[in-house]
Model the fold of this input.
Amino acid sequence: MENALRLLKGRSFPGKVFITPRADPLDASALYSPTSSRIISNETGPNEQIDESHEDEESRSNSDPSSSVNKMNSSTSNAEPKYTEIPRTPMGSRATDSARLMKFTKELSSTTVVLDKLRELAWSGVPSYLRPVVWRLILGYAPPNSDRREGVLTRKRLEYLDCVAQYYDIPDTERTNEEITMLRQIAVDCPRTVPDVTFFQQEKVQKSLERILYTWAIRHPASGYVQGINDLATPFMVVFLSEHLEGSIDNWKIADLPAEKISNVEADCYWCLTKLLDCMQDHYTFAQPGIQRLVFKLKELVRRIDEPILRHMEEQGLEFLQFAFRWFNCLLIREIPFHLVHRLWDTYIAEGDALPDFLVYIAASFLLTWTDKLQQLEFQDMVMFIQHLPTHRWSDLELEMVLSRAYMWHAMFSSSPSHLVS
Done:
C-alpha cells in the first residue's frame, strides 16, 4: 500500500481521478444548485471563513508593482474585511470541485448533452444533487435532447406501470410454478438487502424492490432472478429518491411520498437497472459464465502485478472463486460502506459497456490494498479476513486510491492482453 501511495501521490489521470487535494478555496457560488438556495453537497466538512478580497488583491499584485505596499496598507486599515462561509471539500473528493461543477452545469444546460463529455466528468464523481439526472442520461434512459426528455421519461414510466399490472399485480393462479418460486425467493431476499441501512427495512421500500426485481426477471427470462441483483437495485433507489427526500437516509420515510412519486422512482430504477445489466447479461445466466470469466482474469492480473501474494494464496489453498465471485456478482456493494457506493457507481456508469472489463482492475486494486496483511495470514484467517474486510471506516480517499490504481493498471495492461497470459 505504501508503494502504491508513493507511486500515485500527486499524479493525475486525464479525464479520470485526481487524488491531490486542492489547495485553493472553492467558489461558493458553484456549491449551490441553480434552482435552490441550499448547499448541494452532502460530503462537505466543517465550514471555514474565506477572505473574499484575497483573490482581488492577488490579481492586482500581478499587474501593479506597488501592490505589495498597498496590500500592507490595506492590512493595517480600519476597513472590516468581508468573509463568507463555504463548505470545505474533503481531501480526495472531486465531486464538489468548483471547476468541475461549472463543467457539469455547462454540459447539462446544453440543448443536446454530449454524452462522451458527461461520462468523462462523471468518472471522477458526480455532485449528489446532479446524480439522478446524470445517471439517467449516461445510461441512455433519458435522451440527450432536452426537448424530448420529459416526454420520453413520462412514456417509459407509464410503460413500467403497464408491466407491473401485467406481470406483478395478478393472482398466483395466473403464474407458472417457476414464477411463483421466483417471486417467493425475491420476497425472501428483499428484507436481507443492505441490512445495515435501516431505510431498506421499511416495508414499502421492500415492496418497491420486489416489484422492480420481479418485473425485471419476468422480462429477462434468459437469466430470470439471481440472488445479488437485489443489491444492484439499491443505489438507483436511493439516488432517485434523493430528488424527493432530504436529509440523511437514516431519516427517510418512503411512506411520506405520494404514490405517483414512488411509482416514478420505481420506474427509473427499473429502466436504469435494465440498462446497466444489458452489458453483463451473461453474468446472471445459467452457471454465470461471465462472472467466472472475470474471476479467471482477476487471478491472471494479480499474477502480473503481485506474484508473491498470488503464490501465497495458492500455497494456502485459497481459490479466487471463494471470494471474487461475490465481489463481481454484487459489484462490491457488500464490501464497502453504503455511503461510498454511489461514488463507486459514478465510475461504473461512466464506463458504460466497458464496465465488465474494468471491474477486473477495480477488484485487483481492491484486493491488493491488503497485500501486506494477507501475506501474514494462513488459509482460515485469510478467508475470515477477506469475508470481513476492514472498510467500515473508509472515506472517499481510500475509494479514490482504489480507482486510481485500477485506472493505472488498466492503462498498462488493457491494450496488451497477452501480458496477462502466463
About this structure: The beta strands are 47-51, 83-87. The CA atoms of residues 32 and 249 lie 20 Å apart. The first strand starts at residue 47 and ends at 51. The two ends are 25 Å apart (CA to CA).
